[in-house]
Design brief:
Elements lengths: L1 H36 L1 H7 L6 H9 L3 E7 L4 H18 L3 E7 L4 H13 L4 E5 L1 H10 L5 E6 L2 H5 L13 E5 L4 H11 L5 E7 L3 H17 L4 E7 L5 H9 L4 E4 L3 H4 L2 H8 L6 E3 L2 H5 L4 E4 L2 H16 L11 E2 L4 E4 L1 H6 L9 E2 L3
Parallel strand pairs: 1-2, 1-3, 3-4, 4-5, 5-11, 6-7, 6-8, 8-9, 9-10, 12-13
Antiparallel strand pairs: 10-12
Helix pairs in contact: 4-14, 5-6, 8-9, 10-12
Amino acid sequence: MKKALSLVLALVLCLALAACGGSSTTSTASTSSTASTDAAPAAETAGESTDAAPAAESEAAVTYTVGICQLMQHDALDAATQGFRDALTEALGDAVVFDEQNAQGDSATCSTIVTGFVANDYDLIMANATPALQAAVSATTEIPVLGTSVTDYGAALDMTLAADGSTGINVAGSSDGLPGQLYVDLLLELVPEAKNVSILYCSAEANSVVQADDFIASMQATAPDVNCTVYTFSDSNDIQMVVTSAVENCDALYIPTDNQAASNMTIVQNVCAPAAVPVICGEENMCANGGLATVSISYYNIGYVCGQQAVEILRDGADVSAMPIAYASDPVKEYNADYAAAIGFTMPDGYQTIGG
């Protein structure tokens, strides 16, 4: 009996020792883990560089969110937006995220779009066309705003630009503006016998008013005997009626870089081509869709320049308020061969065929 009791006691003692041994192993593992965590500060104290990897991760993690508000879809504005995106993507790669939205020609929708950009605290807003720019400026005085496809920033913002072309506020960008004299010279070269010129644009577009006034002033200075008559429409619903009135007694029709007109050039062509009226347009894409000739710039290029400005602001910390408005260079005289054939018009030398 005593021998049996001794055996039981010996067995209990062995189990107890085994349990103590397991507890000791667990504690050692925990201690080793803690020591490994503290190794980096120890190495830093010794002068070793331990923050290279975290810094690289931090730099790689930097992203910029850019909101794009485009007034409407037509070829010129589409090209400007693409140029803007390409410039940013080439410089920043995946570090830039775009939220691109189209207002479908509605100024109120522009306001809704940019208000959302501001509420989400985006890093930069690109406003494509004057109503989009005006909506963005009304929505924020803090977030950098860049415009493109805007003809006259002074008129659009109701302000006088600084001598260096900067706005002094949170706005910069690129312009599609060209002097009205270029279009006057073009029209008089093509229709030297012109006595009555009609000017067509949307009354809601401030930049179209500026361009029309510039054209009229240039025409009065160059050919004071030419009569200029303005015809305005409010939206796409009345454009056909207004165009019909405009071509009744004119020798040529001038349309500035007007977004509503640009998106309705098929209507313009359907009225003007049967009447054999030479249509002088503000830019290439309008002309390609229903005009005779233009002095044009590349909308892709002005969008690209705007994108380069965005890179300077986002990556390099440039001050948007001190950034001069950028203007297009090297305008080209172009013509629409199909429209010329449709109205039986022979083009002089010195004009490039659109798309040719």
